[in-house]
């Protein structure tokens, strides 16, 4: 089978489409025949900075058909449509950019009828991340206001739709060319993030946000604190360093700041299973209560283009790979 | 009656013991005859940086006897022993460093028999703060480990005792001269905070803390993140600016950082009432399950000494004022 792998970390050109042996599922794994995979920034970051296990097959998300099930697997059988995420973590050498991937059952859920493989692969990692940020950490409630940085991005556009689906009011930032589309996903207001008065505009549009979702690599901590209302939650999904210039302001608002990593669910035994979250995300997509947008699709051979695009290009939604 | 007031913010010498008219309680307030008050850093900070309403009577905490009750007060009557906190906030011009103070009933609880007025005044603000940090925000559980900066301080020494009282394991920092005393309050280990390897020692002693309580004015954010374990809570009670040098480390631990201010409970209508928390603190002290340490006592006339000591001196526990 083909797999897109790297043997050393580095630029996009370390990626190779290689011919590998088809893996065998362990007792608690299923072998999935890939019909769609999606690209996430973490895939490119790992490729640049180094994965714990090399060679590494790139790719976190997969949707496909069960080709074989391990000896202890009794709830998935050959031919089942499934989707999964978490394959980027150090636990795995094998990711989703391959004709087949082995997946532990805690990372997997059935893909409902009426949900494309492309949609399943596209929603998996970003959807689980948004779920954890908004539900598990921030306990976002109907009628609450959520301020979402980058409402056209992979995480951001699902966050907008998910906040709307649970009865909250999303306010997002985006470049002007995406404003209509982000409004179409459910945003009550969309703010150009290049505005000088971004913070003031966000405070006005949200009235003080109950939740701020910060998935941007730069440091927006001060904006997050300024936009959050009293008792608000700030979920931080990215970034390398952060400065809180005004700790008393954050304290006077009694803010809860949630530091999150998309990888933790697949690495920590006491973290909640990914499967049940994917299961619910799948239902929301099947019932048209949550939309995942696919900007474009590449064939597996062009995985390097997907890796380049995820870090360098601006687009709406997700980029998907197919066999 | 006498009141220790300031008409302008500034150094300790702005404090004046003045002769004022005894206040009248409003419909939902009680008039408390002060038997003890305690000094907290916030009192000195407000005096230095300016209170919203001037002139301001200094002092946040009070314990005493009800001298009169407002028309709508039916659960407190003349002669009742009570204690209260929150009198430092902008809502009040009148604080606790006076012969009498008016107190809204939501800031008040009965002082149980067997609890001194001095103990009641000493435990009030720091106890409510610790309760919120450990119970409301961090949901500290029995068997969990709490790392407490400054285990000899006003907040810290109550935090050590409170963590032990709820079945958790406190590990604290303190100067060597306080180690025995802090161990006596319930700390499983005490670490000299001047050690070069403070972080490593704290990680070893806690095994990765479930809760870090950071009540220090400097920025210990990086230490907090390093000492916290996976899924840990960091409660930040002080500080002006903070830098998280390693956001990915904090994210990979899935930390929840709680920014808290001791003033919020008394200023925000949707925050929990102080009274019920004080009520429980009083029971713990009455039952000898929580100890509050009083380092020394000054008469009201020497309030300036208390203001100076709280910012400049190192001591164990609390400093109390009496009439």
UniProtKB/TrEMBL annotation, chains A, B:
One of its GO terms (molecular function) is anion binding. InterPro entries: ADH-like_N, ER, GroES-like_sf, NAD(P)-bd_dom_sf, Zinc-ADH_QOR/CCCR. The keyword Protease does not apply. This is Zinc-binding dehydrogenase. Residues 10-321 form the Enoyl reductase (ER) domain. It comes from the Archaea. Transmembrane segments: none annotated.
């Amino acid at each position: 089978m083909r797999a897109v792998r790297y043997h050393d970390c580095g630029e996009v050109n370390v990626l190779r489409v290689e011919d590998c042996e088809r893996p065998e599922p362990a007792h608690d794994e299923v072998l999935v025949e890939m019909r769609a995979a999606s690209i996430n920034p973490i895939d490119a970051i790992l490729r640049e900075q180094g994965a714990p296990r090399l060679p590494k097959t790139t790719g976190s998300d997969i949707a496909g058909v069960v080709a074989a099930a391990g000896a202890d697997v009794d709830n998935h059988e050959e031919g089942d449509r499934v989707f999964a995420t978490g394959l980027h973590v150090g636990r795995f050498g094998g990711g989703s950019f391959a004709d087949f991937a082995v997946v532990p059952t805690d990372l997997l859920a059935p893909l409902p009828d009426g949900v494309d493989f492309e949609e399943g692969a596209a929603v998996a990692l970003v959807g689980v991340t948004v779920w954890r940020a908004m539900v598990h950490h921030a306990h976002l409630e109907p009628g609450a206001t959520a301020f979402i940085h980058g409402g056209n991005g992979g995480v951001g556009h699902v966050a907008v739709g998910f906040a709307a689906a649970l009865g909250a009011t999303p306010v997002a930032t985006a470049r002007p060319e995406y404003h209509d589309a982000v409004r179409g996903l459910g945003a009550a207001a969309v703010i150009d993030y290049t505005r000088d008065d971004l913070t003031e505009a966000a405070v006005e549009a949200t009235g003080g946000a109950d939740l701020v979702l910060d998935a941007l690599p730069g440091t927006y901590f001060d904006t997050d604190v300024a936009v959050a209302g009293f008792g608000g939650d700030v979920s931080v999904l990215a970034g390398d360093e952060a400065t809180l210039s005004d700790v008393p302001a954050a304290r006077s608002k009694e803010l809860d700041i949630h530091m999150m990593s998309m990888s933790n669910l697949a690495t920590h035994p006491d973290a909640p299973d990914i499967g049940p979250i994917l299961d619910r995300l799948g239902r929301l997509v099947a019932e048209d209560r949550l939309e995942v947008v696919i900007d474009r699709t590449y064939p597996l051979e062009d995985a390097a283009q997907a890796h380049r695009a995820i870090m360098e290009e601006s687009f709406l939604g997700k980029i998907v790979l197919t066999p």
